[in-house]
Please model this.
Amino acid sequence: MSHVTEPIIAFVMIKFPKITETFILREILQLQKFGIRIELFSLLKPKTSDMIHPESEALIKRTHYSPWLLSWQLLCSHLFYLTHRPIRYTRLFLRLIFGTIAQPIVFAKTLAIFPKCVYFAYIAQKSGVRHIHATFASHNATCAMIMAELTDCNYSVTAAAYDLFVETVFLRKKLLLAHFVRTISNYNVQLIKERYGDLISSKIYLIRRGIDLEKFRSAGSKSTIKDTQYFTILCVAALESKKGHRFLLDALNYLNRKGRKIQCILVGEGPLRNQLTGYIRLLNLQNIIFTGAQTQDEVLTWLLKSDCFVLPSIVGPGGRREGIPNVVIEALACRLPVIATSISGLPELIKNHETGILIPPEDTDALASAISYLQDNPLIAHKLGQFGRKVVECEYNIEENAKKLRDLFIRALQNRI
Model:
């Protein structure tokens, strides 16, 4: 398999490691098992206080971070391209300026990352990188485009969620110049085709995220919904507006007044933490537990302790919305009945009353009704969990899906795409 292991692929990320991006970590680890050599480049360096998954620790040592803006290493990288490829360097810089100047925030961020991207290009070239992959179509895709232009590599992009719905400035150009575009849902495939036309649609590939099915197989011993004092609801999501926590709390308030014995575990951290805790006090809700951010293994423990999983996602400010959240796949793999909203790609995973319960976004009554239904019908909840597991086994196996991504990389390296 030497033809697979020789080429080096650069993975460009906004921030690595990141506790909420387990799906990227899984793909990297699985691709390495297949013999793909990967160099990691991260635009931002994690804080020492950031929680990380233990599996990330070995990769941090191999991740390239940009040095200080006025450092000798960074200045040398720019001098290298100014002397060896002055026209290309200048043309690229001007393209970025004129492509983003209409949006001041994007323009400022692009100027801020440009020095880092040139440095990364220099390191990638010295390391023998042959292909560059951006894990989102956001600023790291801009970085991948810059690196590819300076190094004569081709690049690819995974377009998944906010990068398609929110950060769309310069997106057409980034997708158009990419060797291929990988996305994770049919919803996204259609969105890209409708917005950006045939030139881009011909290079789109649907490859879903995946999980380690063996890791979640231990959950299969549960035969019925647990009969305990409380019906335990689990919600694993960053505490931000697009996750819709407020609607879950409103539903719990209604159910609490109806005398339902329900406990809710909120796993995650984010900017709305104080606002949500204040709202819980205002409603005088009991049995709500905030755990903060958790590792993958800790989330698995909560999944095994819960009776159902709820993700009441909404379309947030600026059009922010879900792709297909990995934790929903994990919940289904654990045979948990799932309640989710019909946002973007979620209906591809949650078939209403087949693999879970789908409700309209921002519908507190529908959410409360769905929770009550699962609490009152444990056998139906069990059946939903069983069918959910089957869907995950068929479509979200990390080994199978990473293999498809590996094959795309090999074809790109051989210029067969």
